[in-house]
Write a structure and sequence with these properties.
CATH class of one domain: Mainly Alpha
Helix content: over 70%
Oligomer: single chain
Largest sheet: none
Number of helices: 5
Amino acid sequence: MRHKHERAAHGKRSPKSPYIKVLDKVTFAAGVVGPFTVLPQIYAIFSTHSAAGVSLVTWLAMFVVTFPWVLYGMAHKDRSIIVSFILWEVANATVVAGVLMYASPGR
């Protein structure tokens, strides 16, 4: 099994198996849907105007470690990775913004 850039370098473009085609579609769907799992956290912060119990350090770290994946997706021209991790960045940044806006003083 070789990465697609290695297959391209060898001038071979092997046809995708039905398993790979389905896996590609499932992975893309999961990559798009996954970031929306953060919506309840975002809703909780912005509807209550409270970030109690939400760790700024954790969400900042998630934002930082997600960014290289966006660059990786761009470097490899992988649409699934690009779309997914840009959506994760938006979700993570929204939580960070909410924590910064609504964190209780002295936190």
